[in-house]
Amino acid sequence: MAGECILCGKCMEVCPLLRATGREELGPRAKADLCRVLVEDPDLLSEARVEKLAGLCLGCGRCRAVCSQGVDVPMLVAGLRQAHPDFKKWLWKTWLVRARELWSPGSTAARLIPKQFHTERFGPMLKMLSGLKGGPGLTPFLKIASFPDTVRGENMLLFAGCTATYVQSRWLMTALKLLDGLGVDVLPGEFKCCGSGLQSAGFADVSRSMAEHNVAVWRNAGKPRVVTVCASCKAGLEGYIACFASDEEQAEWGNSLLPLSEIIFDTECVISTPIHERLGYHHPCHATGVDRAGLFLHYALNGIIEMATDRECCGFGGVMRLGAADLTEPVNAACWDTLAGASVVVTGCSACIGQLKATAPHGVRVGHWLELIE
């Protein structure tokens, strides 16, 4: 895939890391070209330099979306990470694979660490961990007045994602109540993690195992539509390959994936209490195409969302957050510059929420758009 890059530069226009740092060597075009060179001459760079290169990608996928040649730079970087494992990647793998056991107590433990022990490097990470667990959340002020009948009586699976399942039960309960109001019968099915975070970190085998399990859950349920509440989870599920019986089944899987915001788009909403906050909305990088969650809120709130990102990435970056936090900071700062003035920021991606919560200016609250619904 690296050899197919024609160095046109389209990816450079959309890369948030390049835009925030101004360093062309961090851009996707440079990574694609260097990966091509490494394929031709693996001994050209030292192990340490290749390992460093493998850590310098946010994995947002914006370059992949605009590439006319189909070059997937995040996947190329994932290949480098797989070939050059280190402790940071092992730590990331453990955190994702053992989410059920680690996330809730990890969040509680992070809250107990005094702020004077939050080092410059790990302070934001500890703040992110402490905010991971469910709390009071945002104050809801949207009430569903009526539901459409477009999906009434349909059987669906709910892919809630690790965050909603293990630490943010409020999102899960709101999603289930919305599906109940829509008349959807939610089928039983125990999904695993979508695996996208593991895939981008270079753990292709573990990610593949999770993908095969999730596809099996879908098959056993009769291949119904699968509702998602997280943009990154949906993108991860869409990226499944090589675990289907045929190309037709893979297409069937892709067509079955459905964001919750899309099926509640035509609900009638009323603002139940006066809104005193200035609202901001963050467009997740992985919400490809039309961001139905943003549109739903725009119409439900009569257009009163005052700030919204478009090209800006939150700067989370997955495993890059552990290994090159200094390079994610200007990306995050550009995102908050766009959202300046907002007192409440919502989005539809659990990773973005964690990053924005950890870096929010004083007094700014961050949450999932589901938290605005009574």
TrEMBL record:
Keywords: 4Fe-4S, Iron, Iron-sulfur, Metal-binding, Repeat. The keyword Repeat applies. It comes from the Bacteria. InterPro entries: 4Fe4S_Fe-S-bd (IPR017896), 4Fe4S_Fe_S_CS (IPR017900), Aconitase_4Fe-4S_BS (IPR018136), Cys_rich_dom (IPR004017), Helical_ferredxn (IPR009051). It holds the Pfam family Fer4_8. Residues 1-26 form the 4Fe-4S ferredoxin-type domain. PANTHER family: ANAEROBIC GLYCEROL-3-PHOSPHATE DEHYDROGENASE SUBUNIT C, GLYCOLATE OXIDASE IRON-SULFUR SUBUNIT. This is Glycolate oxidase.
